Amino acid sequence: MAAPTPADSYIPPPQKQLSPKDIVITRGPGARELTLSTKQGSPLALILVTTSDDGRVRITSPGTDFTQPSTWRELGFGDICWRAIPPSPESFVLPEPTLPFTGPPGPWQYSNVIVSTQNGPVVYNKPLPNEYVTGQGSAMESVIACVVPAGQDISGQSLRADDPDDGNKVTICHATGSDDSPYVLMTISVNSVANSGHLEHAGPLYPQVGWGDVIPPIDGVTPGLNWPAGQGLLENGCVPVAPPIDPWPPIAPPEKPVKPEPPIITVPPPTPPVEPPIATVTPTPDPTDASTPNATPSQPIATITPSPTAEVSETPTSTPSGTPETTGTPGVTPSSTPESSGTPETSSTPGTTPSPTPSSTVSDEDLRGALDTYCETKDESVLPAQVRDSRTTAYLTNGVSTLEIDRAYSTLYCKARALPATVPDETDDVLADTGSNRPIPFVAGLLLLAAAFVLAPKVRRH
Question: What is the reported pTM?
Fold first, then answer.
């Protein structure tokens, strides 16, 4: 056999290229949520969100699941799609396009093969057996194969059959919903096809979940259901066939189709960096020192707690009476009952004197108050620098095209705070805001995403 060759990547036509002008942002279903969608209502997924400085944006829902075969079948990438786990994350050589499960007889040909990666899908167009697919720089997580009948005209043929009684009859495969006998061969009148609910049985081909009828095209009634993909099944008496030898790695079971949902992000108020806690200082008396008979080792002499207003005192402000003065530990006055105060104090015990911790310049309340004022006045001068300079970068995909958008956190905050629910933002100041708004070639997009994972310290993945 010849050495494997690389499969051809899918090049999306202009109408499938994700464009900034197609993105619509509306108020999400929950508090401080924003929904991202396209004007055409096409499936959309959010791959990654990064935020700089003190802004906080997280993914609430990633949107469309492009790792599911039913998503690609619904998008028209094949008549039957299934998902397999490749034995290696680096590359996978495509076997013959035979179904790896009991299903309609072939022959079949690959229409598309989709590689799922952490950075989004990589799509290959009409690959051939013995060609290999990769994640184009990312590790492969799964492979989705989509097939169509080999050498058949997608448009099918119109069917007209005369019958002396009815005038027209047609033979169909009626779906039963039983795995033991998924189809029943039926010859019925064209009128029955049109009026008895068969056209409503529009699921995919067995064994995909929710499979439907196989009906050939009928002039003036229907262009057909599962046709010509199901033609071989109809010719075989509506009996699925078992695969010859399974050339595929472990197959994920068919999943129930899920309606694609748009991605949702949550834009909570900013949070300043959390200051590290200060250690508790607990001097321990020397057990061999006879001059400290009243010292209690288990009781702390002074406690330092994290507080932005904490003050450090070199000399205790009070000395409890009735307690003998100790000489074993310089500067420490033990007490049988430790006292607590709002401003902890420390003794000048050698080696345990902490340095003051600088306080945060802006509190949570001040940040939120400044943002709320900005949302009402649009006066950027009220924003602290760490919020004014905070940017959010998001990577979106429609499965075949990737788009990067970079926006001011303050703008997103105001939109999540003020937009009415379910009302599209026609003036979308997120898209009008200065910053990047560019489609990314898919290979370059994967490299950018990989760099973002390494370089962005504040990635929020959910």
Answer: 0.64
